[in-house]
Structure formats: structure tokens, C-alpha cells
Amino acid sequence: MQRLTRALIAACLAGGLTVALAPQPASAATKAPSAPDVQAHQKRQLAKVRAATARFRLPQAAIDNGYVASPTCTALPGVGAMGYHYTSSANINDHVLNIRRPETLVYVPTRHGLRLGAVEYFQPDADQNVATTTDRPSLFGRPFDGPMLGHAPGMPIHYDLHVWLYKKNPAGLFANWNPAVTCPAAIQH
Known about the structure:
Blueprint: H1 2-15, H2 35-53, H3 59-64, E1 67-76, E2 80-88, H4 89-93, E3 104-110, E4 113-124, E5 138-139, E6 142-143, E7 145-148, E8 158-163
Antiparallel strand pairs: 1-2, 2-3, 3-4, 4-8, 5-6, 7-8
């Protein structure tokens, strides 16, 4: 388990935890709740996340609470950027998705320094097979992106989900890349 944690933090430090993959549609056999019910439930959940993470608006609060900072601003030229990933090994190691305890906080560059732009949820793929999706997690009524290969040596096949609560994302609240975010030119990866 410690090796997995070190690999996840190393991957974060090497350039972030995410790639853009389209989520798979839900099974047709699964009856989905009505749209107004989903929207109301999603809004309540997002309010809980905002209440739990507002204290992390500045990066020092994340560091003070055990998040490890990535030195790399993650960007995809022509698509957008994510920013800097700060990852909590404690939140990854508990293996329980908790909307109030995101595994990663994503900070975006602003003229006033780094500010919280998004939260990211991360879940290792149980069978470590990119061809199967029976264990795809979901939060906020949204399936996670993936499964996807790790982004650095030792990082497992995994699922993830971004939620752009603090920086408006023209691509959507749950999009991986934010076209309104840019990384300093000297350090884009």
C-alpha cells in the first residue's frame, strides 16, 4: 500500500493525475432518477463539497492538512489546463470516496498567486484492467472518467473525476481540462 501511495504522489508531482477520457454511458437496464431529482441532489452534494473545501482556497492550507504539492502545472495546449495538483495520501489510502475529502485539490494560477480551482476524486481500478468497467465509481450522479493507465511509473490503472467548483470552466463543471486556465509558459507540461 505504501508503494501505491508513493507512486500516486510521484505521479502527481510528475504532472498530475488526469487524462481526458469520455465517461461510459450508464447501462440501459439501470433506471435513472428524473432530471429535477438528480439536479437537486447534485446541488446539495456540491454545496457539501464547497463547505468542506472552502478552507483550502490558498495552497498553504492544503499543505498544512497533509496534501503534497506538484511542482508542475498541467496543461494541454489547444485544450486548456488543470493547474497544480495537491494530493492527499491519507485520502487515497482510506479507499473510500467521500465528497468532503477529495483526494486531490487543483490550484490554478491567478494574478494573486495560486487559488483553488477544482477538486479531484481518484479511485484505483479494482481489477487493474482497462478493458473492464464494472467497478466504475460515480459521484454527483456522474460516472468517473476511466479506467485509464497511470500517468507515471507505478501509478495504477484508475478512475478520476474533476469538479470545477471554484474556477468557472467553459467546458463544464465536470470536464477534465479548463480552457479558462493557463499555465506559466516556462513550466507547461
